[in-house]
Records
---
Amino acid sequence: MAFFKTIFSKLKHGLDRTREAVVSGIRSMLLGKRLDEQLISELERRLLSADVGVKTTRRLVDHIRADFRAGKMERGDQALEYMKAELKRLWPPADRELHLAPEGSPPTVILVTGVNGVGKTTSIAKLCRTLRDQDKTVLLGACDTFRAGAVRQLEIWSERLGVEVVKGQQGGDPAAVAFDACAAAKARGVDFLILDTAGRLHTQDPLMRQLTKIRGVVSRQIPGAPHEVLLVLDATSGQNALRQAEEFDKAASQNGAGGGRGVTGIFLAKLDGTAKGGIVIAIKDVTSIPVKFIGVGETPEDIQPFDPESFVEAMFAAENG
Ligand SMILES: Nc1nc2c(ncn2[C@@H]2O[C@H](COP(=O)(O)OP(=O)(O)O)[C@@H](O)[C@H]2O)c(=O)[nH]1
Ligand SMILES: [Mg+2]
């Protein structure tokens, strides 16, 4: 399935800030230069400051240092090529696709979760837009009943995108909205049901239980659902995003609701708003949850599938390349 396609220019543009702040520095530091100990230490510092993460940075730099000392690597260009190749290999090919309902038994249910303000509703609009472009029918469920204006925000997007929303009372039970949305999705035979949930603080236990409850309702209504639990993270929040990934994964897999699977994928929003695009690599270091999508702007078109090859190329691309 390839609903989502990389558009390289958009991806590259989305990573402008990361590239300008850190990576173009690394490029110009290495290209055409001879390696020495000082250059290698500087490389290490810059990788860390792009939030690449300690583990991967250490692995890359240790290898370059060892090869340099053994006389096997002399030029900065070689170090750059080595890093790109290694980074591309970090992510196994499996499991970046959207998990779908079995052939012939729609709907595919996507539960979208994450802390307030990270970009959940916007990311849903993006998913919705791409699916609509592929002639898929989509229904939205507004399970964020806590925040005033949340339902309205989803409705505004849905009107623009031409999809319907199932909603409940403000302050009502989100699980009840999930129930109604599942019933409506089945009755209408839509291909996809996307549920927007309230911004749950990962440290607030009752809110986590709420998520578990929604999962339970969904799985009883539609066996095998939710097929995908997408955690939206805000790339601009750095280390905080990493902690959220760990906490959500733990909490969502407790109690066994919905088959006991935790978060099945990450939607990393606002990559365009940060110079620390290396966070994608750090996420890989601390959790086994695959990043499936990245957000590179505020409009419904600003979505990209996460593809390691394109990502690394875009991150290390020459400014005019
Ligand atoms: N630059 C940028 N802004 C984004 C992106 N995704 C969301 N936003 C903005 O982040 C803010 C919060 O988004 P929203 O979807 O309401 O977050 P929610 O509270 O998690 O539903 C809004 O101003 C969005 O326009 C993105 O990929 N890039
Ligand atoms: Mg929202």
---
Amino acid sequence: MKNASEIFEYLESQGDQAMEILRAQAFTPHNRKKLRQWGITEAAEMIGRTTQHIRQQEKAGILPSAETGTKGRTYSLEQINSLRNHFETRPGRSSGDETCILAFANFKGGAAKTTSSVHASQYFAKAGYRTLFIDCDSQASATQIFGYNPDEHIATNETLLPYLLEDIESPSSVIRKTNWPGLDLIPANLALYGAEFSLPAKAATAIIERKQYPFYSILQEGLNKIKENYDIIILDCPPSMGVISINAIYAANAFIIPVPPSMLDFASTIQFFSMLKEVLSQLPEKKFGFVRLLITKHDGHESSNTLVDTIRTLFGSFVMQNVMYTSEAIRKASSDLLTLYEIEKYQGAKSTYLRAMHFTDEVNKEIERAVRKTWESDQDRFGKTLNLNTDELVAAGS
Ligand SMILES: Nc1ncnc2c1ncn2[C@@H]1O[C@H](COP(=O)(O)OP(=O)(O)OP(=O)(O)O)[C@@H](O)[C@H]1O
Ligand SMILES: [Mg+2]
């Protein structure tokens, strides 16, 4: 019989080789990730002006002309954003509005937290919002989708870790640009997991030394230092209820819980609610602008429909109207470490791609509406902010 460390050393080295082969097939490094361009019709829609109006202004020399390539006139997101600035159609919060800090969390693994949060971040960036994505998961799945190999491109001091350990004063120095204009990233790698040991150890020392150490609000304080630069900050949480998740949930002012409509996934989600209730009841009171369950990976089967009906009956408006259906296009994009928003030409049935794109967009539009409802300046358009404290929240969800 071999001892455990030998077995895992062997598995690790084989695994590293396997990842190298797989990455060579699927991975486009961040510096080679090129964002698609948009044709005049789509660009005009994104800008909020007619194609004629844009063309007239280009002809009159008021606006620089779009690039004309093999596919006709195309616009980059950078150009689209500067046209939005020119026409004053770029969306965003007013200075008096709070930056939306939106956590995607569920204790259950594989619930589509990363898929949903990365798509949401790109949707917001595409719409012109100033967006920051924070990978709070040491598995670093989102970091890879953004084109970084966490073992190779990300040093230990380039994640949230040095800020959580108070080695740096603000998370601002670990923010980097992505291939999406207007979308910044704080990446993750495995070393981030170290926070799960270091923070409790610091908390224990603080108790012995009779000092205050609010371990749960470190991220919140860090985001207070940088949130002014963004309309929305999206947090992708790990599938656990450790100190990083607690920090993320405590820092958030809005919360999406992705849940696939299967008995076991749902049962885990209920356990998650129970943990949240326990944990949050021990911390200073917390308010959320909105909290929503997002049904993910819906396979359209009768048994899933029945479960969704039950969830809707019991949880009412806590459940998002739109649903993420299981899709071959999402599965395929994810195995190429891409999102639907990054695909310019889908290799497969166009209808599959368009269907996936439709329900992803609808989910994200609904999230956008919920975010905008929390902005005072949008109140006239969208009605009053839902302001629940955790007790009300849990009571309504139980
Ligand atoms: N709508 C969908 N259609 C098809 N596959 C999907 C869909 N949503 C997610 N997946 C796939 O399910 C798997 C898990 O998704 P994802 O990584 O987003 O979950 P997660 O909750 O972030 O997982 P973890 O708990 O490990 O962080 C991935 O392989 C992803 O491609
Ligand atoms: Mg994930």
---
Amino acid sequence: MSTLLYIQASPRDNRSKSTLVAEAMVNAYKQENPNDQVVTLNLFKMDLPEFNGPALETKYAILHGQNPTTPQKEAWKKVEWIIEQFKKADRYVLSTPMWNFGIPYRLKHYFDILIQPGYTFSFDSETGYKGLVTGKPIAVVYARGGSYAPGTATASYDMQKPYVELALQFIGFTSIHSIVVEPTLHGSSQEQTLVIEKAIKQAGRIASELARQPVIH
Ligand SMILES: Cc1cc2nc3c(=O)[nH]c(=O)nc-3n(C[C@H](O)[C@H](O)[C@H](O)COP(=O)(O)O)c2cc1C
């Protein structure tokens, strides 16, 4: 049995377009793989530890090759728990809105906890940075009110998809499937329905690809 970790970064529950499309993907995946486990995290509902004080100082202690102090170790346990929960999954689905051209603050908070030296990446002065979350596929659903298609005048405003891809590649992902749901706020209601229908069809296809891709631990 393998585990699909599904991470939701919209607080809009059943009004969220990114959640709607990602749920279609997760449901299609479950139909094809009824024995797999799906773990769902809603980043606006789960408890994310503050990343300051002793937790933050632990990151610097690790970076400088020093032993964390007892309070730092205590604060770090919550960080480790979130990293372990992430790393033990086999496949991933992430859904995120665009907020002010980037990602919602709770997803940034999650990345700030997740992306840690020695856990999700390593550094070597000769070979540089290396991602440690390898051999597993991820699908990301991006929803945006406007349109940022490559080659258009607004393409360079998109700090959402390039940033998420960079963060995921940095920690080792090489197989990243993407669905862009846009525009969710402009156009007639018929046009908006078409945007969602197209994205849901893509979600079904990607669900099958995710399921078929072998996972290497
Ligand atoms: C705080 C906030 C900031 C937003 N910023 C942008 C933006 O910069 N560009 C854009 O196209 N849409 C923006 N939107 C619109 C959302 O991207 C759009 O409603 C999208 O569908 C949200 O995803 P969701 O439906 O999954 O929640 C913003 C919405 C909110 C609530």
